[in-house]
Amino acid sequence: MNIFHRMTLTAASLCLAITSAYALDGDAEAGEQAAAMCVACHQSDGSGMNIPGGESWPSIAGLNAEYLYKQKIDVVDQSRNSPTMMPFLSMLDDQQYKDVAVYYSQLPAKQGAFDPEATEEELAHGKKLATEGDWDRYIVPCSSCHGPDNLGAGKSFPRLAGQHAGYIADQLHAWQSGKRNNDPQHLMLAIAERLNEQDIRAVSQWLSRQPAK
Ligand code: HEC
Ligand code: HEC
After folding, report:
1. What is the mean pLDDT of the chain?
2. Residues 200, 142: one domain?
3. φ and ψ at 110, to 5 degrees?
4. Any idea what the Cα angle at residue 140 is, between residues 65 and 191, rounded to 5°?
5. What's the CA gap between 31 and 26, in Å, rounded?
6. Would residue 48 be called left, alpha or beta, if left means φ above 0 and alpha means ψ between -120 and 50 degrees?
7. Is the pLDDT of residue 15 over 50?
8. Which residue of 15, 20, 137, 168 is surrounded by the most CB atoms within 10 Å?
9. pLDDT value at 12 more than 50
10. Cα of 45 to ligand 1 centre, how many Å?
């Protein structure tokens, strides 16, 4: 195969990758309008915010559109119980929400917040859980599902790298308590229930420090 064939093939596979990233049938421009009611919390750049000691609003910029869309369905049917998000998501009809999901998925991913006082020891433990797991405790590395560098994989496994530490920890607690019960085949529950408080702090602090891009 000569270099030109290779380039054509690469271009073709790039196009495929791009089409499938926005496979959801939504319109980003219309989505930008509808997103007006989301920016109070998720910000106009989709970066969200971490309220120290309070709620954590996730960074949703650059997340897969189909993943974002699934979260709406789950919040509305309450398999993901979020009293904060429910009223806002219920205001959007199906098409409006598809538009918003496509809009946010196309924004560049943003770096989240973390606790600058996390220790080297905590970060080393977090890195180990995220990249190697802990086989003695049947904890699979996060990256085995969330993709190399935990940047996300397809529509099912969201990016964790650079997400707000407070949000990552909140979600792990939500699975433990059953507040979030929307993961296919309980893939996340199986992980979350094996993590103790130190693990949760360590892994969320380490992941939040990893480049979102
Ligand atoms: C009052 C603050 C607030 C507003 C306004 C708000 N959200 Fe949220 N959003 C949150 C919080 C808090 C969470 C985390 C919920 C949880 O813990 O399950 C969240 C989670 C999400 C998630 C899940 C992200 C993920 O990574 O799984 C999506 C998607 C989302 N919001 C989209 C929207 C959209 C679209 C709008 C506007 C229509 C909106 N939100 C308005 C606070 C808000
Ligand atoms: C066996 C596969 C698998 C492994 C391993 C895994 N996850 Fe997940 N994770 C998932 C799936 C699937 C979802 C999406 C659930 C949904 O549809 O809402 C998810 C979602 C999440 C979310 C929610 C992100 C968001 O934007 O709301 C967090 C936080 C998370 N995982 C943390 C972790 C951490 C930390 C580890 C490693 C200790 C880990 N996961 C390992 C499958 C996995």
Report:
1. 90
2. yes
3. -120, 150
4. 70
5. 8
6. left
7. no
8. 168
9. no
10. 14
Pocket, ligand 2, Cβ cutoff 6 A: 58, 70, 129-130, 140, 142, 144-146, 156-158, 160, 168, 171, 182-184, 187-188, 191, 203
Gap between the Cα atoms of 130 and 123, Å rounded: 10
* In the predicted structure, residue 7 carries a pLDDT above the cut 90: no
2, 68, 179 from 7: Cα distances, Å: 9, 32, 48
> CA-CA distance, 116 to 127, in Å (whole number)?
16
How confident is the model at residue 55, as a pLDDT? 85
Q: What is the distance between the alpha carbons of residues 163 and 11, in angstroms, rounded to a whole number?
A: 30
In a mutational test of the pocket of ligand 2, which residue from 114, 134, 191, 204 has the highest number of ligand atoms less than 8 Å from its CB? 191
Residue 51 resides in a domain: yes
- What is the per-residue pLDDT across 173-208, written as a single tens digit (0 to 9) for each? 999 999 999 999 999 999 999 999 999 999 999 999
The number of domains in the chain is: 2
Q: pLDDT at position 22, please?
A: 54
Tell me which of 76, 106, 136 is where a domain ends. 106
Asked, for residue 12, whether it belongs to a domain, the answer is no
Bridge partners (DSSP) listed for residue 134: 139
pLDDT for position 147:
97
